[in-house]
Amino acid sequence: MKNGKAYICNVCNKRFPFENIRYSIDGKRILCIVCHNKVMEKQEKKKQAYSAAKEPLDSIKLVCLDCKYHFSIRKGSKVKLRCPYCSNSNLSKDDLTAEKLIEEVSKI
Ligand SMILES: [Zn+2]
Ligand SMILES: [Zn+2]
Tag placement on the chain: N or C end, fewer CB within 10 Å? Predict the structure, then answer.
Protein backbone atom coordinates (compact mmCIF):
# COMPACT_ATOMS: atom_id res chain seq x y z
CA MET A 1 0.00 0.00 0.00
CA LYS A 2 1.41 3.32 -1.09
CA ASN A 3 -0.69 5.54 1.07
CA GLY A 4 -2.13 3.67 4.00
CA LYS A 5 -2.57 6.68 6.24
CA ALA A 6 -6.14 7.06 7.41
CA TYR A 7 -7.70 10.32 8.45
CA ILE A 8 -10.42 10.51 11.05
CA CYS A 9 -13.40 12.65 10.24
CA ASN A 10 -14.00 15.10 13.10
CA VAL A 11 -17.74 14.80 12.67
CA CYS A 12 -18.53 11.09 12.30
CA ASN A 13 -15.22 9.82 13.71
CA LYS A 14 -14.80 7.26 10.95
CA ARG A 15 -11.53 6.64 9.16
CA PHE A 16 -11.12 7.70 5.58
CA PRO A 17 -8.30 7.71 3.03
CA PHE A 18 -6.96 11.14 2.18
CA GLU A 19 -8.92 11.42 -1.08
CA ASN A 20 -12.17 11.25 0.89
CA ILE A 21 -11.16 13.99 3.29
CA ARG A 22 -11.96 17.69 3.06
CA TYR A 23 -10.96 20.54 5.32
CA SER A 24 -13.67 22.45 7.15
CA ILE A 25 -14.30 26.06 6.12
CA ASP A 26 -12.20 27.40 8.99
CA GLY A 27 -9.46 24.88 8.16
CA LYS A 28 -9.30 23.62 11.73
CA ARG A 29 -11.08 20.35 11.25
CA ILE A 30 -11.02 17.56 8.74
CA LEU A 31 -14.24 16.09 7.50
CA CYS A 32 -15.10 13.19 5.25
CA ILE A 33 -16.79 14.10 1.98
CA VAL A 34 -20.22 13.09 3.29
CA CYS A 35 -19.98 15.23 6.43
CA HIS A 36 -18.42 18.06 4.48
CA ASN A 37 -21.34 18.10 2.07
CA LYS A 38 -23.79 18.10 4.96
CA VAL A 39 -22.05 21.04 6.58
CA MET A 40 -21.99 22.94 3.30
CA GLU A 41 -25.69 22.29 2.81
CA LYS A 42 -26.46 23.60 6.29
CA GLN A 43 -24.35 26.69 5.67
CA GLU A 44 -26.18 27.31 2.43
CA LYS A 45 -29.57 26.94 4.09
CA LYS A 46 -28.54 29.25 6.90
CA LYS A 47 -27.50 31.85 4.37
CA GLN A 48 -30.76 31.50 2.49
CA ALA A 49 -32.83 31.69 5.65
CA TYR A 50 -30.94 34.77 6.70
CA SER A 51 -31.41 36.62 3.45
CA ALA A 52 -35.05 35.54 3.29
CA ALA A 53 -35.69 36.74 6.82
CA LYS A 54 -33.89 39.98 6.16
CA GLU A 55 -36.38 41.28 3.60
CA PRO A 56 -39.55 41.71 5.67
CA LEU A 57 -37.64 43.01 8.67
CA ASP A 58 -37.89 46.58 7.49
CA SER A 59 -41.54 46.88 6.69
CA ILE A 60 -44.86 45.13 7.00
CA LYS A 61 -47.38 45.42 4.23
CA LEU A 62 -50.85 46.24 5.41
CA VAL A 63 -54.18 46.82 3.82
CA CYS A 64 -57.03 48.82 5.24
CA LEU A 65 -60.13 46.64 5.35
CA ASP A 66 -62.44 49.61 5.05
CA CYS A 67 -61.07 51.55 2.12
CA LYS A 68 -58.67 48.89 0.73
CA TYR A 69 -55.79 51.31 0.91
CA HIS A 70 -52.49 49.45 0.69
CA PHE A 71 -49.53 50.72 2.63
CA SER A 72 -46.56 49.51 4.59
CA ILE A 73 -45.21 50.40 7.99
CA ARG A 74 -41.85 49.97 9.56
CA LYS A 75 -41.63 46.90 11.71
CA GLY A 76 -41.22 47.71 15.38
CA SER A 77 -42.90 51.05 14.91
CA LYS A 78 -44.55 52.16 18.14
CA VAL A 79 -47.09 54.30 16.35
CA LYS A 80 -50.63 53.04 16.64
CA LEU A 81 -51.59 51.40 13.41
CA ARG A 82 -54.02 53.40 11.44
CA CYS A 83 -54.87 53.66 7.79
CA PRO A 84 -53.16 56.81 6.53
CA TYR A 85 -56.05 57.35 4.16
CA CYS A 86 -59.14 57.00 6.34
CA SER A 87 -57.57 56.71 9.83
CA ASN A 88 -59.35 53.46 10.47
CA SER A 89 -57.57 50.86 12.55
CA ASN A 90 -59.31 47.98 10.85
CA LEU A 91 -56.18 46.67 9.15
CA SER A 92 -54.99 43.38 7.85
CA LYS A 93 -51.64 42.09 6.72
CA ASP A 94 -51.32 42.42 3.01
CA ASP A 95 -50.04 38.90 2.46
CA LEU A 96 -53.44 37.36 2.03
CA THR A 97 -54.49 35.94 -1.26
CA ALA A 98 -57.33 37.73 -2.98
CA GLU A 99 -59.62 34.90 -2.07
CA LYS A 100 -58.78 35.06 1.62
CA LEU A 101 -59.17 38.80 1.56
CA ILE A 102 -62.70 38.48 0.23
CA GLU A 103 -63.40 35.97 2.98
CA GLU A 104 -62.10 38.38 5.59
CA VAL A 105 -64.13 41.23 4.22
CA SER A 106 -67.37 39.27 3.96
CA LYS A 107 -67.08 38.38 7.64
CA ILE A 108 -67.36 42.00 8.61
ZN1 LIG B 1 -17.63 12.16 8.45
ZN1 LIG C 1 -58.57 53.11 5.10
Answer: N
